[in-house]
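Escalation from tier 1.

The customer reports that the assembly of two entities below gives different structure tokens on two consecutive runs. Tier 1 could not reproduce it. I'm attaching the input and our single run for tier 2 to review.
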Amino acid sequence: EAGVTQFPSHSVIEKGQTVTLRCDPISGHDNLYWYRRVMGKEIKFLLHFVKESKQDESGMPNNRFLAERTGGTYSTLKVQPAELEDSGVYFCASSQVSHRTNTGELFFGEGSRLTVL
Amino acid sequence: DQQVKQNSPSLSVQEGRISILNCDYTNSMFDYFLWYKKYPAEGPTFLISISSIKDKNEDGRFTVFLNKSAKHLSLHIVPSQPGDSAVYFCAASVYGANSKLTFGKGITLSVRP
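Tier 1 run:
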């Protein structure tokens, strides 16, 4: 079974440009999350989808960030225009809704490293 | 304001000995706690979790202890192995599973052969 896949693995862009990150969750997982880790700090929550609906987007830094999950499958995270402080590793994670058996485990992708120059 | 704190940035342990990784939290609403392990250039992988109704959970060489009154949890690895060398993140959530996780900064564990 394929895990969570993210693309691109690394993106280098200039300040003011646009970048779109993509996440393919594990097939059948309704929950999809975006997290970000900046400069070796803690991993911070950005937002949570349940299928195609945004369940919680309280962690989105500002309106330069736009996340979508059309059809409830893959998700994209667009940063437009990118700023220097947006540099970091963006992790996507997914999980299945199963209150009886769910250990709370999120399955993370390898991350997309964004460098804004 | 960090709600999950891992105050020791690194820990070095001899192979075969016990590794104890500590984590403190400030939000008394947290009711579910998890440990994730991360190797370089990889995403975090789930290790073990504990609900606030328990004070201990064990899975093979890994045991997590929860002290709610002290808002403290710890991860014990016995015996430690070189392959355990990684960054360990403590995480917590409110309202149980499937909720957003609040992570600590991580502890880099080095297990010396």
